[in-house]
Amino acid sequence: MGKRKHIWLITADQMRADAMGVENKKVQTPVLDKLAAEGTVFTNAYCASPVCTPSRASIMTGRYPNVHGAWNIGVSLREDEVTLCDSLKELGYRTVGVGKMHFRPQCKTGFTAEAEEVSVRDRGRERDGTYFGFDEHHISEDNMVGEYIDWLRRQDSAVAERFVRDQYRSGDAVRDVWESDIPPHLHQSYWMAEKSIEQIDKHDVEQPLFLWTSFVDPHHPFNPPRAYAEQYTDVDIPIPEAQQGEFKLRPEHLQRQGERGYWPGGGEAHQLDRAHLQRVIRNYYAMITFMDEQIGRIYEAWKARGLDDELVIVFTSDHGDLLGDHGLMYKGPWFYEGLTRIPMIIRVPEGTDKKVSALMEHVDIAPTLLDIIGAAIPYGIQGVSQRPVVEGLEAAVRTSAITTYDAHDRGIQAQCLRTNRYKLVLFAGETYGELYDLEVDTEERQNVFSDPAYQAAKLQLLELLAQRLIQEQDPLPERKALW
After folding, report:
1. What is the mean pLDDT of residues 355-384?
2. 302 close to 201: Cβ distance less than 8 angstroms
3. CB 411 within 8 A of CB 252
4. Contact 179, 223 (CB under 8 A)
5. How far apart are CA 146 and CA 467, in angstroms?
6. Mean pLDDT across the stretch 389-413?
7. Separation of CA 421 from chain center
8. Could you tell me which residues come within 8 angstroms of residue 461 by beta carbon, excluding any fewer than 6 positions away?
9. What is the DSSP letter of 82?
10. What is the per-residue pLDDT for 250?
11. What sign does the CA torsion over 308, 310, 316, 318 have?
12. Confidence label for 136 from pLDDT (cuts 50, 70 and 90)
């Protein structure tokens, strides 16, 4: 076995697949576009769940939310789970995490908005003292409590004081949207790049390094540094429209979410005017452009150490953002493409520029990385290696992809099955669901779940979903005796 390749996992938070320049020329992402040109872009990659914690835990374990324990936000990843870091450490890797992890709740128990103590949120596991297998971790979550704010105070106490008070809002901040006046070199994303570069610079290159750089952007609030927002001032950005009557095709219990007080706030159409929504989307793109610049800074650090020729890179997101699609905002119990389809770039040193339509899931990341470096895939991982697709040996290794939303404590459990042509959504305890023929309905406007013309296709999809749900059951513990 030769020298192990270094691995750099990059994640965004709440970033849509169509928010990169390789898919959308309105978005300025020159660094990600270059990474895409050096590797494989999966245009049909799907998240494990349309909210943060379940997807992040699935990325790190290669296992589905119903088995790794972190079935929704507000729930922790089980400490007995074997993570990608655990597997890499056994192979001699140093493992470092920078940025948003979200394997544990950010708020204290009792359904309060009060931030959890950093010492509790970021504590090591009982069994080995590591943060889920990371040798070193530098965490800054959505609420920014902890190490980033401490760093900001050391850099500029006046800026830190104002930031803690109002996150450096502009004078015309409205409903989660503003252009931040915080200097770019003091921004949270900049800090994440700094900490990542610091790890690369100090690392002994004879030991393989696994570095996870996990950005919070472009998660709401939509507040990029002002200069980056201004780059989009004259960009003509289409505004999504909800069609008349579209909400009547939506499952009834999701329409009543506002009545149940469900975060992030109901299934009725948003009330944002066109100008406000356009500002949201422009700022969202600007946040991605600033993040892209920080990714470029980190990539230059890898190159400066001469490591880019032995570096495996994965770029993805935990899920997308509705951004006004179908009259909805943010995330939640929805399975539209803008929310569930995620960016996915896999760059290997010997890779070539290609886009593939092969279906991929979050759970495939861990086994793919292990396979690429020539390591065995541990028993218990439920994902499949996409290495044959990356290397051009096979067109696809999956015929379907699963996305799960579980809020059983609030009356919602749903499964989404995505094939090359169809999308089927089932809701536990309900007689209705969603079915879209994406071959003829690319915008998911016509729910044909009850359409007689689609009943044969629906039955086939239901059978496939049943098979997938059986396969999703936890294979652990491993059988090691005859009887």
Report:
1. 98
2. no
3. no
4. yes
5. 44
6. 93
7. 23
8. 417, 419, 422, 424, 435
9. P
10. 63
11. negative
12. very high
User: φ, ψ for residue 355 (rounded to 5)?
Assistant: -110, 135
Q: Where are the beta strands (DSSP E) in 230-381?
A: 311-317, 341-342, 344-347, 354-361
Q: Comparing 18-32, 247-261, 332-346, 455-469, which segment has the lowest mean pLDDT?
A: 247-261
Residues β-bridged to residue 210: 7, 95
Work out the number of other CB atoms within 10 angstroms of the CB of residue 32. Answer: 26
* Phi (first) and psi of residue 155, to 5 degrees: -75, -45
Amino acid, single-letter form, for residue 147: E
The residue ranking higher by pLDDT, 327 or 215, is 215
Distance CA 363, CA 370 (A): 12
Res 1 pLDDT > 50 = no
Task: Report helix, strand or coil for 284.
Answer: helix
CA distance 106 to 344: 26
- DSSP letter assigned to residue 73: T
Q: Considering only CA atoms, give the Rg of the chain.
A: 22
Region 25-53: mean pLDDT is 97
452 Cβ contact list (under 8 Å, min separation 6): none
Q: Which helix (H) or strand (E) holds 98?
A: strand 94-99
Distances (CA, A) of 292 to 20, 123, 189, 232: 10, 30, 10, 15
481 exposure class (CB count in 10 Å sphere: 0-12, 13-18, 19+): exposed
Q: What share of the chain is helix, strand, coil (3-state, %, to 5)?
A: 35, 20, 50
| The pLDDT of residue 93 | 98
What SS3 class is residue 218?
Answer: coil
- Contact 358/51 with Cβ under 8 angstroms? no
How does residue 246 score in pLDDT terms, banded at 50, 70 and 90? low
Helix (H, G, I), strand (E, B) or coil at 275: helix
